Amino acid sequence: MKFREVDMSNDFDFSVYPNCEIHCVVIEINGERDLSDAVSEISQKIADTSWISKLPTFFRDAFLANAPKTIDKIVNEILNKVASGLNEKIGEYLVSFSAQQALETLFHHYRLPLAEILKEQLSNNPGFDFHTISHKDNLIHGEAKYGGKDTRWADATDQISDFIDENKHQGEQGWLYPFLSAPVIANVNEGKRGFTAAFSMHAQKEKLIFRHAMESDASKKIAQYEEYYLIAVVIC
Fold this sequence. Notes:
By secondary structure, the chain is of the alpha/beta class. The model has no long low-confidence stretch (mean pLDDT 88). Strands 1-2-7-6-5-4-3 form a 7-stranded mixed sheet, with helices on both faces. The chain has helices at 31-47, 50-53, 57-78, 88-107, 115-118, 153-165, 168-171, 173-176, 182-189, 206-215, 217-222; strands at 2-5, 21-29, 110-111, 130-133, 139-145, 194-200, 227-235. Strand 4 and strand 5 form a beta hairpin. The longest helix is centred in the first third of the chain and has 22 residues, at 57-78.
């Protein structure tokens, strides 16, 4: 799995979003071995519940009551079936995980457990798919879309825009609270945060895709916040 930031300075006028830090990233997953390694790493990361033991007792008990059920479902019922091919659900886990890893590697973000593990239901929870904490102590909400042979940037950005309208980002604050430091909470209280649109990409003109994404009505809304990451995942 390879990560690289795409320089869009000659292809997009960033001054139209003066208050937002914007980055465009491509992740390349090349061949069956690379894909197999990525899926194996996802399974290991999801199955690792060491983060629960680091929480205060109140929150630890809550997550112990819910998280293991979802972890078992994801690892045993979904990821272990990847040999039969990538479907939309497995693809979205792959996009979510690789996007988090890219944010950590390229921009020194701190990764939170996948959102589906933290929520109280077993699966199919509405809301953002993953979260990170940025180098600016901003909470970053991530949405992942996988579409087989389709490029799904519009689905990811439109979903984020809809979630902002529905205040999904604010609704998540309760169960994210035990993972947030005082500076992050202070930024959240001031309305400062960011978003990641992560999506599968199969077209070759990556700069054109990123430019279209950044010029969209959805991005105009997203870029009103402090940070915005567009991450394209190419599975070769």
